[in-house]
Amino acid sequence: MANLTKISPSRKGPPRFGNRPHNIDTTVRTYQLTPEQLERLRAGENLDDILKEAKEMEQQKPKVIAYAKYEEVVAERDELKKQLEELQANMEKEVGHWKELFETAMSDKERLQKENLILENEVQRLKELVDELRERSDRYMDDWTDMTRELRALRLYTLQKLQKDVYGA
Predict the structure, then answer these.
(1) Where are the domains of the chain?
(2) What is the DSSP letter of 4?
(3) DSSP E strands: which ranges in 82-147?
(4) What does pTM read for this prediction?
(5) Tally of CB atoms within 10 A around 154
(6) Distance of CA 104 to the CA centre of its chain
(7) Is the CB of residue 50 less than 8 Å from the CB of residue 41?
């Protein structure tokens, strides 16, 4: 019979990788080279030498560039401050103008509300007057109708009396 080989439990399952430190640099560095530096690199010059030289040049330039940039930044800041002050002054004027317009509109609104109330009262008074005049007109119409009947009756009576007196009955 064949003997079965025993497999260690540590060898069963998925593969495992140890946690031992390795001395491999895994950082990714990117460089942006000028066309001249790229030509030097292609010519076989060492990248570290090219970068070291560029770094030395940059260390000498920043003082002059930084001072010039500082003056530009200060001048731009001063210009922006002036613009901000002008904008604030204009804004204050405009806010004052709008505030004045708002106050005018509010006073006009109050005045118009009072005028509207007065006109509503006047309309109500005129409606009452119209009702009163209608009632008076109706009374006068009734009186006129009654008087017209009486007048007709008196005319007939006068006509008969006249005929009786003139022609005899």
Answers:
(1) 34-164
(2) P
(3) none
(4) 0.39
(5) 10
(6) 23
(7) yes
Give ∠ CA 121-123-124 in degrees, rounded to 5: 65
Residue 75 Cα distances to 79, 85, 86, 122, 163, angstroms? 6, 15, 17, 70, 126
What is the separation of C-alpha 123 from the centre of its chain, rounded to a whole number of angstroms? 41
Q: What is the DSSP letter of 19?
A: -
User: Nearest Cα to 35, choosing from 54, 63, 9, 15?
Assistant: 54
Q: What is the pLDDT of residues 119-164, one digit of tens each?
A: 999 999 999 999 999 999 999 999 999 999 999 999 999 999 999 8
pLDDT digits (tens, 9 = 90+) for 28-70: 778 788 888 888 888 988 888 888 887 777 766 555 556 667 8
Helix/strand/coil (H/E/C) assignment for every residue in 6-69: CCCHHHCCCCCCCCCCCCCCCCCCCCCCCHHHHHHHHCCCCHHHHHHHHHHHHHHHHHHHHHHH
Written as one letter, the residue type at 38 is L
Q: From CA 17, how far away is CA 11, in angstroms rounded?
A: 12
